[in-house]
Write a structure and sequence with these properties.
Blueprint: H1 13-22, H2 32-44, H3 55-65, H4 81-84, H5 94-110, H6 116-129, E1 136-137, H7 168-171, E2 175-176, H8 183-193, H9 207-220, H10 222-230, H11 234-242, H12 248-262
Helix pairs in contact: 5-9, 6-12, 10-11
Amino acid sequence: MKRQVLEFGSTGEAVRELQALLGIDIDGDFGEQTDAAVREFQEDRGLKIDGVVGDKTWAALEAGEDQPEPEATEGEVEISPELVAKMFPRATLRANIEKYLPHIMDALIETGLDDTDMVVMALATIRAESAGFVPISEFKSKWNTDPGGRPYGRYDFRTDLGNGAVGDGARYRGRGFIQLTGKFNYRNYGKKLGIDLVANPEMANDPSIAAKLLALFLNNGEARIRKAIENDDLAAARRYVNGGSHGLAEFTEAFRIGQRVFG
C-alpha cells in the first residue's frame, strides 16, 4: 500500500505514526522538531535530505522497525558507541553518539554512577528527553505555549519552576540532555557546577555541562532510582528524574535494550 507523503505542516494519524518511528514526541503535527528528526534520519540513511517523507524514507523507517533486538551479553561490556546505538534504533546519528558519549561517561564516572544500572538509566533518560543523542533546547508545544500566546508563556509564572516574570518561560525552557527547566533548577544546578546558569542559560546545552547536569540529576535521586531499578519499576525510575511519565515508552524500550546489551 502506498504511503501518504508527509512534509512540514502535515497533520494527523500518519504524522503520529511517523513520530513514533522516529522516537520523538508524538503530537500529530509535522513541525520543526519532526522536520529536524526526518532530515537527521535521512542523512543517517544516505537519503535525499529534504524533510519530505516519501516512499524511500517510509521504507527506511519501517525497515528499522524490523531489525532484530540485540542478544543478551554476558560478562563485562565496554560502553561503546556501537552498543549504545542499539538503544537508539531509529533517527539518531551514530556520529552524535561518538561525539557526545565521552562527555556522558566522564560525567558519570566523576559522580560515581558508571555502573551498568546507572549508565543504562542515563542513556535511557537521554532517549526519552533528547532522542537525537544531542543536547537540545525544548521545542514549542501545546504544553508550554498557549494558542497565539508568547512562546513558552505557560512557563512564565510557574512558581514550582521558580519562574516569576514574563519571558522566564522562554529563557529557562528545557535544555541539555536532561531538559533542565525553570529558573530554580538553573540557579540550583548552576551553583553545584560553579557557573551562573541563570545569567547564561544557553550554557546548559554545552556538551560537557549538559552531561554533568544529567549526572547530577541522577545523583540527586540515586537511592530512589536504584531501588526502583531493583524492583523493576521503570515508571518510578522515570518519575524520579522527569517528575511524571513523559517519554516513558521510549525510556522503557531503551532501558530494556540496554539491559540486554550490557548485561
